[in-house]
Structure formats: structure tokens, C-alpha cells
Predict the structure.
Amino acid sequence: MVDILHRVAVENHGTDEVYRALTTIEGLRGWWTEDATGDTGPGGEIAFRFPDGGFDMRVLESEPGKRVLWEVVGGTPEWIGTRVHWDLHDDDGWAVLLFKHEGWAEPVEFMHHCSTKWAVFLLSLKALLEQGAGDPAPRDVKNDNW
Amino acid sequence: MVDILHRVAVENHGTDEVYRALTTIEGLRGWWTEDATGDTGPGGEIAFRFPDGGFDMRVLESEPGKRVLWEVVGGTPEWIGTRVHWDLHDDDGWAVLLFKHEGWAEPVEFMHHCSTKWAVFLLSLKALLEQGAGDPAPRDVKNDNW
């Protein structure tokens, strides 16, 4: 098992504001993909769609200002059954987000891509909060040739 | 042991051009840090400096257009002894770079940060080649509060 890890710090924001960007359809549309629909509450399922596919996430845990946990229940085979952890804490006025996408069976080339791409979207989330606008799909920064 | 993985594809470039950006001081200064000095050849050591510290890399392998391997011989304790792999291949006119920073003892918070930060610098490398200018330190995109 290999994991994708990331960390971003959001200036002059509380963890509750990052939490909202992770747990409301409006928030998710602002940094990951404009085509997000579904139920963001505990037990709910969220459908994220991109020009070339998408993912369905089941919300396993959701603790305001602290953490969110998703399980991938639909999408590309490598993602099915993996889990996406969002852990939040305050660091002297910065909201710090620790990210983990765990449960990859093998470190395939697609996993390398997804690691870079998650960083792109986490920087989009930071920009959404700090600057008022992110770069969600289909306007996302490209790192691939697919 | 846990690894940091990334993938970027550089449009309309050969792997030899990415290789040059990884194996010349001018190239390295164009995307990672403006303060890079040393011997980039096999067996050489390269000193990378940033406003808040730096790293020394020993070049273990260097195969033109194919791969580069560094071992970290100086810098922050978590990095000492870890290895940075740069593997290149062509994919229909795109130069694809597979990156691995392997040998982390534990998935500490600093490792989460470094994963995101490597993505930032790999996108800087892609921009250097595709657009003619990267964002090396100290002009790098910030993801931390340190």
C-alpha cells in the first residue's frame, strides 16, 4: 500500500472555512470541479465529474473544523476502495490542511500523475479561500498529456 | 518507508531537453532555486540553497535523456540519505517525467509539505521548458506557513 500525501496552509482563515469548502457543493465546485453534485453530509454520496470521467465519493466521516473522510465508491478502477483524508488544524491563524489519499495497490504511473494533480487542486483550494477564486476543472492547471 | 511520487508531461519537448534542465546549473537555477552551485556530473555534488536552508545532492546516476538519480548528503535531517529519482520517457512528442523521492522514514507533516512543494517545482520545470520561464526560489509558489 502506498499513499499520496500533501500539506497546504491557508492564510488568515479558520479551519471551519476550509471545512466548508470541503463539505458544501458550492465550495467543492470552487476548487475541484464545476460539475459536483450530491449529498455532502455523513453517509451521503458526492459525484465529481470531469471532461474525461469522474469519481463518486461516500462521506464516511465529517467533523466540523476538524476532519473529513471520503471513500471512493465509483470511478477509475485504481481509485475504487481508496480513501481520501482531510485533516485540519489551526497554526497561529493559518488553517493547515493535511491530505492523504490512501490505499493505492501499486505505485503505478497514474498514481504519480494523481499525486501531482492533487497538489494542483489543493493550491486551487488555497487560492479560492485566500484570493476569492480557484481553478476548478475544466479550468484546472494541466500537468498531463492525456 | 514511504515515497513521494509525481508525474508531469512537457509538451513538444524531447527527454534530452528535460535532462538538460536537471543536469546543468543554468537549468536547475531556472526551475528549483536561483542559488544552485556545484558539479552536476556523475559523482559530483550540487548545493541547492533557499532563503531558509538548503540541500546537497550527490549525483549517483546520470544517463542522458533517460534518468538522473541523486542522494541527499546534506540538509534537513529527514532528507539525509533519501534518494531523488528522475525517470524520463517520450510519449508521442511529450517528454514524460516520473519523479520519486524515496526513503522517508516516517510520513511526518514535513513530508506532506515536501510532496506538495515538489509538485510546485515540477510545474515550474514544465513552465520553464514550455513557456521559457519557471518560478524558482525565492520566487516560488508558496504552500506553507513556515
Remarks:
- The longest strand of chain A covers residues 53-63.
- The CA atoms of residues 18 and 93 of chain A lie 13 Å apart.
